[in-house]
Design brief:
By secondary structure, the chain is mainly beta. It has one domain. It is built from one helix and seven strands, in the order E-E-E-E-E-E-H-E. The strands form two sheets. Strands 1, 4, 5 and 6 form a four-stranded mixed sheet that branches. Strands 3-2-7 form a three-stranded antiparallel sheet, with no helix packed on it. Strand 5 and strand 6 form a beta hairpin. The two termini are 25 Å apart.
Length: 120
């Protein structure tokens, strides 16, 4: 299932210019992941106690999940989903996370899922 177009808003921590030959430095839990296209697997998260999307092969990062939360302080370096109705926040995050996980579960078995992360 290819989802074209807008699904929901997202929120990440501060974007920093990190990586080989770049001036920024990673601050654990407070740095957005680099732009790129990443495969996604839905796996059980012991931290959250539920099945959540996990981004794979993110340079300099491990355990990047898509989960619920409202502000950058809730991200711990992950991606939050919701509705951007207030500056610096996403709202109705639990609703949007349920919708996302449901949609991922409805795809044909074996079909890959990818996410493209872009600085906006």
């Amino acid at each position: 299932m290819r989802v074209a177009g807008f699904f929901c808003d997202t929120l990440e921590p501060t974007r920093r210019d990190i990586g080989p030959g770049r001036p920024g430095r990673k601050l654990p839990g407070r740095t957005a992941i680099p732009e790129g296209r990443y495969p996604v697997a839905v796996t059980f998260s012991p931290r959250f106690g539920r099945w959540l999307p996990l981004l794979l092969h993110v340079p300099m990062f491990t355990g990047v999940r898509i989960h619920a939360g409202n502000t950058a302080e809730d991200t711990a370096g992950c991606i939050l989903v919701g509705k951007n109705a207030r500056p610096g926040m996403v709202l109705d995050s639990q609703i949007w996370l349920r919708r996302l996980v449901k949609r991922l579960g409805e795809r044909p078995e074996g079909e890959g899922v990818w996410i493209t992360v872009r600085d906006s």
